[in-house]
GMP synthase [glutamine-hydrolyzing] (Methylophaga thiooxydans DMS010), 319 residues
Amino acid sequence: DWTPGNIADDAIASIREKVGTDEVILGLSGGVDSSVVAALLHKAIGEQLTCVFVDNGLLRYKEGDQVMATFAEHMGVKVIRIDAEQRFLDALAGENDPEKKRKIIGNLFVDIFEEESNKLKAAKWLAQGTIYPDVIESAGSKTGKAHVIKSHHNVGGLPDYMKLELLEPLRELFKDEVRKLGVELGLPYDMVYRHPFPGPGLGVRILGEVKKEYADILRLADHIFIEELRKHDLYNSTSQAFAVFLPIKSVGVTGDGRRYEWVVSLRAVETIDFMTARWAHLPYEFLDHVCRRIVNEVSGISRVVYDITGKPPGTIEWE
Ligand code: XMP
């Protein structure tokens, strides 16, 4: 019968049988799926696994360091961290269109991942965090914007340049099963039950052109929002919550005088399937507190708004 322990044991046995003494590479993103694959493979084949973590500079507050702390320092997984912030910023410079931004980010990720995997000449297998819903989704459509990265090279095999065999140990699992497996494998609960985060990251939460200044401001505001949600026990009752950077300036006034600075919107939704969603009716006092903290603590922000658009007619992300 189905228990996370059984699933883990079976998966480990079948990975060992398949892979033997071969080397495996995995693109680690910090998301739930690739994290669970990393933990699983580490348990199954230890040193034969090398993870490549591409830090695109569009991650959340201290996220890159957390990925390294959890996997490299804590668990002893071999992780190569590629600091690619400048390459992503350069590639995105001057681009305003949301879908083009997504393509730029997805393509550059694949390029960098390819560069790194080519250096790991001994690798025979490419592991991926494909889960059952990805398999279904990709069978129906090749144009869905979700999972841009994954769809580059998981469904229907690999592009020619990657002469690696695919290893997809989560292919038959649903998200809740993947999470239980992650906890079973010893991953931190908060990591495994984290809200989803889009592949293009802050790239689609900074409206229009992406700039480092905007990303740095947004990370701080987003961090305050999430930290307060957790503190007030509201994180788990919302399905997804984040801040969005609006590249417009607004006048404000504080003790120091007049400010003319950027605006952020807070977004929080409740949903089962992410296809439709209701905006989270967070308590006014809570929103008031978060707004005050953001304006007081994040230099560069003079105003905070709250998004009260459902899906439909809105999407969850702003781009
Ligand atoms: P929307 O904005 O379409 O989002 O209502 C629905 C869910 O999908 C996530 N999302 C993405 N995930 N790449 C991803 O990996 C993307 O380009 C992307 N766009 C949206 C979004 O965060 C939400 O959970």
